[in-house]
Design a protein that fits this description.
This protein is an alpha/beta fold and 250 residues long. It is built from ten helices and seven strands. The strands form two sheets. It has a four-stranded parallel β-sheet, with helices on both faces. The radius of gyration is 19 Å and the shape is elongated. About 3% of the residues have low confidence.
Amino acid sequence: VKFMFSNTWDMGAYSHKEFNAVDYILDSVKDIDSERLNFYLCNPHTVDAIKSKRPEVDARFMSVYFNRIRHFNQDIYKHNPEQRSKHFLCLNNLKKNHRTFIVDRLPPEHSYVSYVANGKNLSDGPLSQDVLPTWQDSLPHFYYDDSYINIVNETMHEYHTPQAIGMAGHSTEKSLKPIHFRQMFLVSGNIHANKLMQDLGFKLFDNFIDYSFDIEEDPLLRLKQLYVEIKRLTDIDVTDIHAYYNSEEC
């Protein structure tokens, strides 16, 4: 019995109704021998919860998003060592309040920004939902090559609603694309969204970027603190960002 690549970020969405998805699933398979159970899930926190309650089953973190990026970008990517013109790249699809909050505050002269839901596109031509998969997974490398910091608007609940416990621990291709394309990243998402990247084995750029907003529990305050950091980074001359980007420290 295999549970594979489940988007378990939403499994805790019913926690406020005293519903625990992990307990429910484990109870549903309680009569199946442990050696026959395999959980390959996108959320390491859910994996840990399963292991803590039924340690004898095979439960592993396995993110389909790594392979998704590699599938759509099979050529080895080589970063652009020349100076770039933009501080930020920020890619957005569906309309969400936390995305709008950030997009509305990004300085146009320092940013490449797309927001499909609002008709704000990087493409010269019309961009519809029909061609979204191509845009989402195979964006022209020019935009990565001409910007330094990827502002990642991750999947999360609207900032005016209580945060669901199950959202923590989930990252998608949004957070992984900057790594594949050799960009610095700032993740705007649930609490500890940037620490999650660290937990997965990646290093943060914390000798250049202030990630302290990541620990703020209140979603709206977290967004406001993130904006303060974006403003600070905007005020850094692009030549200084370029020097750090090509340094050993980075």
